[in-house]
């Protein structure tokens, strides 16, 4: 079973940038970043699979960039101009089988999840 290891800073000042990294212990086909606030549904931020063509959620695409490594087992997230409303638990997810590009942001299709990183944005 592939395991995901997330890393990055957990506290960010408003207006600053967030950088998170996720490394998979084995081969994956698709990887993505999601976040969740207690009491609210999990929301997708960005995802990419082996074709290296990311998909971004509309509400963050102006502020988010994801990148992968050559091996394809790492997914980095950068989010700029953070606001207190970006405070959430951020999760990395992966799946072994490829999916249609239009489904990349559907969290229910991901089979492996990281433990999550709590990100707090202070004003």
Outline the structure in words.
- It is a single chain.
- The protein has about 120 residues and is mainly β.
- It is built from no helices and 11 strands.
- The chain has strands at about 5-10, 10-15, 20-25, 30-35, 45-50, 55, 65-70, 75-80, 90-95, 110-115, 115-120.
- The strands form 2 sheets. Strands 2, 4, 5, 6, 9, 10 and 11 form a 7-stranded mixed sheet that branches.
- The model has no long low-confidence stretch (mean pLDDT about 95).
The coarse silhouette is globular
Quote the average pLDDT. Answer: 96
Strand content is over 45%
Q: Report Rg.
A: 13 Å
* Fraction of helical residues: under 10%
Largest sheet: 7 strands, mixed
Helix-strand topology string: EEEEEEEEEEE
Total strand count, please?
A: 11
In the predicted model, the low-confidence regions spanning at least 5 consecutive residues are none
Per DSSP, the total helix count is: 0
Distance between the termini: 40 Å
| Helix vs. strand class | mainly beta
Outline:
The protein is built from no helices and 11 strands.
What are the main properties of this structure?
single chain, 123 residues, mainly beta, seven-stranded mixed beta sheet, four-stranded antiparallel beta sheet, 11 strands, 0% helix, 47% strand, globular
């Amino acid at each position: 079973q592939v395991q995901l290891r997330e890393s990055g800073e957990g506290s960010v000042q408003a207006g600053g940038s967030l950088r998170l990294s996720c490394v998979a212990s084995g081969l994956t086909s698709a990887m993505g970043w999601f976040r969740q606030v207690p009491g609210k549904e999990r929301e997708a931020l960005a995802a990419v699979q082996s074709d290296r063509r990311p998909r971004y959620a509309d509400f963050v695409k102006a502020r988010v960039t994801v990148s992968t490594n050559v091996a394809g087992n790492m997914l980095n997230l950068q989010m700029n101009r953070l606001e207190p409303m970006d405070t959430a638990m951020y999760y990395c997810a992966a799946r072994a089988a490829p999916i249609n590009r239009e489904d990349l942001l559907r969290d229910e299709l991901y089979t492996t999840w990281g433990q999550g990183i709590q990100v707090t944005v202070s004003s």
